[in-house]
Design goal:
- Helix content is 51%, strand content 17%.
- The protein has 10 helices and 8 strands.
């Protein structure tokens, strides 16, 4: 069985040697053929040089593995780097996505592959509950989960980007217009494939310390999740908007008729408050609509760029 590992990395010069040593030790014990694809996402340090040095070492080994390096000369983001690696991995029986900073430990590879052997097309690494976030990060996750519950979207916040897809599922993933723009977990979930999970622990990063997701990073990721398939929740949003609008209008009319019949203006303050709330609600809906439109345009532009490989260089 041929297994491809797609590993995007950015400025991981210090982490790569140790991470690849862990990876090498693990896959040498697994009886499959492995193709490791490192995608440098416009690294500004010596990440590419470190990766090529390790690749030359692997080339001299008589083993079941090979290491290739893809260099992005333009910064296009992690999702695009994952897509570039996935295109190179086409034809593999299984494709595993993981990070190159050491947080996704190679010790889970065997379990991911074993779970796929049970007939699952997708296997997610589900983060354990001890995954640490800052206070704002936790607040962002709580808000995102609340919004998802209100609009009827399944919450997969614990599904990370350490995941496996079968070769047939990879073909569908590569045809998906959102692949390369949205977080990969969101796109894979939208394929509606039979999936399973394994519990994983996110370990400390190797090399230099980097800050975990900030509040606005989580907000952006959550927005991508919400607008990735808006047709799933637009019905609820429209019904809710119409219901609130009707309540505001009826309440305003009630205040107006009451004032007219009594000759007073005591309800003017309440009417103004309701008017402000109504305008705020419409502004939020307009923002979501505009964000959805922007993301769809970005998705279309990225999908057109897939055939253009000039921004990437490959080193075998």
């Amino acid at each position: 069985m041929r297994v491809a590992l797609v590993i995007p990395c950015q400025n991981e010069e210090q982490a790569l040697p140790q991470f690849l040593a862990f990876l090498l030790k693990e896959i040498e014990s697994i009886d499959h053929e492995f193709l490791v694809i490192l995608v440098s996402d416009h690294s500004t340090d010596a990440t590419v040089e470190a990766a090529r040095l390790e690749s030359s070492k692997w080339a001299h080994k008589q083993s079941n593995m090979s290491l290739e390096v893809i260099e992005s000369r333009l910064w296009k983001g992690k999702s695009y780097a994952q897509m570039a690696g996935a295109e190179r991995a086409a034809g593999a029986d299984l494709v595993i996505f993981m990070d190159g900073d050491g947080q996704h430990h190679p010790k889970y590879l065997r379990e991911l592959i074993a779970k796929a052997g049970e007939g699952f097309s997708v296997v997610f690494g589900q983060r354990s509950t001890n995954y640490s976030r800052g206070a704002l990060g936790k607040l962002g996750i709580l808000v995102l989960r609340l919004i998802k519950r209100l609009v009827g979207i399944q919450d997969n916040s614990d599904y990370g980007e350490y995941l496996l897809v079968a070769g047939t599922t990879l073909n569908q993933l590569l045809r998906h217009p959102n692949f390369g723009v949205f977080p990969i977990g969101t796109v894979v979930i939208s394929l509606d494939q039979r999936h399973s999970t394994i519990p994983i622990e996110i370990v400390p990063r190797l090399g230099i310390d980097k800050t975990n997701f900030k509040f606005f990073d989580l907000l952006k990721k959550g927005l991508y999740e919400l607008v990735s398939e808006p047709w799933k929740f637009l019905g609820r949003v429209l019904v809710g908007t119409l219901a609130l609008s009707l309540i505001f209008v009826l309440y305003g009319l009630n205040i107006g008729f009451t004032q007219m019949s009594s000759g007073t203006t005591s309800g003017v303050g309440s009417t103004i408050v309701l008017l402000v709330l109504f305008c705020t609600l419409n502004a939020l809906i307009s923002l979501v609509t505009l964000s959805t439109l922007v993301v769809f345009i970005q998705t279309y532009q990225r999908s057109k760029q897939r055939a253009k490989v000039g921004a990437f260089g490959e080193d075998g």
